[in-house]
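TL;DR need structure tokens for one chain.
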Amino acid sequence: MALDVRVVREGVIAGLIGAAAVAVWFLLFDAIQGVPLRTPAVLWATLVQRLPSPVGVAPAIGPVLGYTAIHVGAFVLFGVVTAVLVAAAEREPPMLLVLLIFFAAFEVFFLALVTFLARPILGLLAWWAILIGNFLAAVSMLGYFVFWHRGLARTLLGRWVEVIREGTVAGAIGALTVAVWFLAYDTMKGRPFSTPALLGLALFEGLRQPQFLEVRLDVVLGYTVLHFAAFALFGVVVAALLMAAEWEPRVLLGLFIIFLCFELFFLGFVSALDEALVGALGWWNVAIANLLAAVAMLTYFFFGHRSLGARLLERWTED
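>> reply
TL;DR here they are.
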């Protein structure tokens, strides 16, 4: 019984963390757009009151509190089920697959709910904002469970726990470096945040004419989340290569190819969206930002793997 109480408590806390992550995200999103608390009011009007169109719905305390109660209750229930699956995975590791499927199903369920039952809100709430809110909730909840079940994580993932940690930190360093560079560049041009706004509008809303750019902080915030997530993923890939290099130092040669591809990928990605974006951003501006990020990340990795260079040289001379 004590174990059951602990599991339920963990699930409730995890659910509250996930609910808070989504709530804070949409609170910021709505406040930046100048309509605080619009999202819960619109969702209440669409899902509960079944209004045919939420256009013109004004935020009010009653609907906001009502939707918040549903929101928190749903996340708490999801958290408790997740906690039960985590506890089961500690006894039977194959249950981890069920846990991952459950998380994926939760994400798909929410998107399906919005798409089929609340289609009208997609004209008011950006699809990418909904995705980011769910992503932040999932990451927050998984982070909580990993923190309290580090033994399970290490048993199931082994050295990958350290790889993920190292890669995430390196990715954050690289993302921050690029963000600071673009902020300085935009500020010197007299248009702070214009670069993330341009990239965000091109990616999220299909902007192809930079001359019509309007710096919107909600888009800047959304692009920033995506920016850090992409760098974290790249950092984990590099950290995985470094783990392999601990066994075979010559893998480091592949690492340099990865970073070269990293330099070219972003410029190619922007070019694929529209050539005009490259002209508006400045290819040299993008190249410098990526170069600074690569140097910052490699410096971080160097301090954690100082012996690899000497081992590579030693292995090379042996052959």
